[in-house]
Design goal:
The complex is a heterodimer of chains A (104) and B (198).
Chain A lengths: L3 E3 L3 E9 L3 E3 L2 E8 L2 E4 L4 E13 L2 E3 L2 E9 L4 E3 L2 E2 L2 E4 L4 E3 L2 E2 L3
Parallel strand pairs in A: 1-3, 2-4, 3-5, 4-6, 5-6, 6-7, 6-8, 7-9, 8-10, 8-11, 9-12, 10-13
Chain B lengths: L1 H6 L1 E3 L4 E8 L3 E3 L2 E3 L2 E3 L3 E3 L4 E2 L3 E8 L2 E3 L2 E9 L4 E3 L2 E3 L1 E4 L4 E3 L2 E3 L6 H35 L1 H4 L1 H6 L3 H12 L5 H17 L1
Parallel strand pairs in B: 1-3, 2-4, 2-5, 3-6, 4-7, 5-8, 6-8, 7-9, 8-10, 9-11, 10-12, 10-13, 11-14, 12-15
Helix pairs in contact in B: 2-5
The chains are: A mainly beta (104), B alpha/beta (198).
């Protein structure tokens, strides 16, 4: 389904850039850039600045987030960092520490 | 469905990674990885895949391009279309027709020792030859220098002392090959050197 999958048990230290969507279930440290959707699954650990079209977070994310369309923090997500997107939703049960910028 | 997706790691065709990729599971590279890959599972570099650094895994299957060493804990398979520039090491190595490889290949777990041995042998030959030219020059210096500066005379004998040993070796070496062989070698070397200069 997704063109790029970082599976659980895989650690990437460095820069990831893709033109398609990406699913992260493992660990990413560095920088993550995607033109399409980015999904950080429950159990994943991302310590990186994330840039993408849209972002869904169910796991742990430390870093600044910029999305063209939307950012959804699901229940169980742990996010530390600033979020910048046109639309941002934070589900009940999500932990979040940082600022939100929705281009008001 | 998410559990199925997360069990396999795929670096998609348009994905570029600059950095290390590590882990204990399988990995499939369809895109571009400029950085070391070291996983405990199997690694597949697909037709579109391109890896610009060393790859280590259990079983390596290469159909794409790799510029770096391939080290497989169990096997390395280079299939048709594979383009590899680097050394290949694994207990089992298979190179299919149509695969391109430039590098050193070793099957088995033992570290590479044969290249080092050949290098030391090659290095030993010039060492025997060089003292002949060096030994001739210091003798002239030693004769002239001690009269003017006695202080320098002390280090000179130290330098002179090792001469007999190399000379003996050279003499022994020159005795082994009959006279016609040595001129033949020297003339051959001179020709090669002249060709290089030109």
């Amino acid at each position: 389904m997704a063109s790029t999958v970082i599976g659980a048990g895989i650690t990437i230290e460095g820069e990831i850039a893709t033109d398609e969507d990406i699913v992260v279930a493992g660990t990413v440290r560095g920088k993550l850039t995607a033109k399409d959707s980015v999904t950080i699954e429950h159990g994943a650990t991302v310590e990186a600045d994330v840039v993408g079209g849209s972002l869904v977070v169910g796991g742990a994310l430390t870093g600044n987030v910029t999305a063209q369309e939307r950012v959804d923090l699901q229940s169980g997500a742990r996010v530390i960092g600033n979020v910048k997107a046109a639309r941002v939703t934070i589900a009940d049960g999500a932990q979040f520490k940082g600022s939100v910028d929705m281009d008001v | 469905m998410p559990s199925n997706m997360s069990s396999v790691t795929v670096i998609g065709r348009t994905t570029r990674i600059h950095g290390r990729v590590t882990g204990a599971v399988d990995l499939e590279v369809q895109g571009y990885v400029e950085g070391e890959i070291a996983v405990g599972g199997d690694v597949t570099v697909d037709t579109q895949g391109l890896v610009g650094a060393s790859v280590r895994g259990r079983n390596l299957l290469v159909r794409g391009a790799v510029r770096g060493d391939l080290v497989g804990d169990e096997s390395v398979l280079l299939e048709a279309g594979a383009r590899v520039v680097g050394d290949v090491r694994a207990p089992r190595v298979a190179i299919a027709p149509g695969a391109l490889l430039r590098g050193y290949v070793q099957t088995g777990d033992v570290e590479a020792t044969t290249p080092r041995a050949s290098r030391t042998q090659a290095a030993a030959r010039p060492v025997v030859v060089q003292p002949v030219a060096r030994a001739a020059q210091p003798i002239q210096r030693a004769a002239a220098v001690p009269v003017a500066t006695p202080a320098r005379a002390q280090p000179v004998p130290v330098a002179v002392a090792p001469k007999p040993a190399p000379k003996a070796q050279v003499v022994a070496a020159s005795r082994r090959p009959p006279p016609p062989v040595v001129p033949a070698l020297r003339s051959a070397k001179g020709q090669i050197a002249k060709k290089k200069e030109r």
